[in-house]
Amino acid sequence: MDAMYENVSFQQQDHDKATSPLPLGGGNPEWTVASMMFVVLKIVLVFLLAKLILTVLSQTIFKATEHSIQTVPDDHDGETKKRRIVTIHSIGQSIAQYIVWTGAILLGLSLLGFDMKALIAVAGVSGILVAVGSQVILRDFFTGTFLIMENQYSVGEQVTIDNVEGIVESVELRFTRLRTFGGETVSIPHGSITKVVNHSRSAKRVWIHSNITYESDQETALKVLRTVCANFEKHPGVLGGPEVLGVSDTTDTGIKLTVFCETQPLEQWRIQRAIRLEI
Q1: Rounded distance, CA 153 to CA 157, Å?
Q2: Which among 11, 61, 129, 144 has most CB atoms closer than 10 A?
């Protein structure tokens, strides 16, 4: 009878070793390597599943955001709504990444033999400590939330944030990333933002100056400018004008004639160059 109980005990130990996620003791080296490979395979599958979930969530968030914004009546045009959709989608995707990857890491650790309940408890306590001790992170998060709710700027718009000017590339949980006109990427924490100037919500004003000498025929010069302005009245990107304002200044060497027009945001430089070339 004792021998039978000992045999059952040995079989139970062998079963526990076989079902252990990652054997930490001795045992058959071949069985240990096989078990480790099986665990690695499961972890790879977990992370592949996490990536698949993120892809589905990204598409779902985009469609839900698009439907929500398109069905709300407002005075914004199609391009503004499109930028709004991209911005909110960027925030939602960032939140989803934090949640899904945290869950995938916890599940991966559990497959390695760590106690899941203990991991969740430690993560919860650590999260509370970090939240209490990291007021800057919370400030960045809540400030970013208000920036999005108030629609102060969206992805693709030209803005100046605390003396940094550029195009908004992304709006994330804690940072707004700008691409400056010099090509640099600047990450600005939301909690540090004190002033925002949005250059993309209204028409841009353009002044083109042309200098002539005192000996030149002013009427002829003005006639040339009016002809050029007439050619640009229906030019793509021009909202108003161009209009010849006439003499705007005099210098020791000549007279300054000025042309004024209004353009769509981000089109002012192209149109300004085109008018100067035509003149």
Answers
A1: 7
A2: 144
Is the distance from CB of 239 to CB of 268 less than 8 angstroms? no
Burial of 77 (0-12, 13-18, 19+ CB in 10 A): exposed
Residue 2 vs residues 7, 23, 41, 139, 145: alpha-carbon distances, Å: 9, 28, 41, 67, 69
Query: Quick check: 175 and 90 in contact, CB under 8 A?
Result: no
**Cα(91)–Cα(55) distance, rounded to whole angstroms?**
15
Q: Give the count of beta carbons closer than 10 Å to the beta carbon of residue 245.
A: 15
Specify which residues 244 forms β-bridges with.
Answer: 259
Q: What is the pLDDT of residue 15?
A: 47
What pLDDT score does 60 carry? 79
Strand partners for 259: 208, 244
pLDDT in tens, 91-149: 677 777 778 887 788 777 777 777 666 666 666 655 655 555 456 666 777 777 777 77
CB 65 within 8 A of CB 92: yes
| Model pTM above 0.70 | no
Q: Beta partners for 263?
A: 204, 238
* Per-residue confidence band for 27, with pLDDT thresholds at 50, 70 and 90: very low
